[in-house]
């Protein structure tokens, strides 16, 4: 993500929105989840993310421009890594939030089902 220094007077909420927009694609989320486990080349990421290499490269470019991943050359390969482990923490918190929300919904549905079809 571009740095927000004193000369950048944009509200923090706008910068946060840009962060979430950069993460707003299933392939980008999956790539970040895989990179949270360790750095990988595009050829290593491709089967784990499950999209064509050219599309994956485009998605990784979005993440790189947003400052979420870094790259380095290793021979003819480009190796990607999370720029900051906090990105992995953010994904883990999102997962916990979704699991809690889905559990609550499941429990509510079970209660409603029990009301409709008493035993």
Explain what you see.
The chain has 119 residues and is mainly α. The chain has one domain (12-116): Winged helix-like DNA-binding domain superfamily/Winged helix DNA-binding domain (Arc Repressor Mutant, subunit A), CATH 1.10.10.10. The chain contains 5 helices and 3 strands. Strands 1-3-2 form a 3-stranded antiparallel β-sheet. Strand 2 and strand 3 (77-82) form a beta hairpin. The longest helix has 31 residues, at 86-116. The protein starts with 11 loop residues before the first helix and ends with a helix. 13% of the residues are buried. The model has no long low-confidence stretch (mean pLDDT 91).
Summarize the structure.
Pfam families: HTH_5. The chain is mostly helical and 119 residues long.
Number of helices: 5
Query: In this structure, how is the largest beta sheet organized?
Result: 3 strands, antiparallel
Look at the structure and name the CATH superfamily: Winged helix-like DNA-binding domain superfamily/Winged helix DNA-binding domain
Question: In which range does the helix fraction lie?
Answer: 55-70%
Which descriptors would you attach to this protein?
119 residues, mainly alpha, Arc Repressor Mutant, subunit A, 3-stranded antiparallel β-sheet
Topology, element by element:
Layout (H helix, E strand, L loop, with lengths): L11 H11 L3 H10 L4 E2 H8 L3 H13 L3 E6 L2 E6 L3 H31 L3
Antiparallel strand pairs: 1-3, 2-3
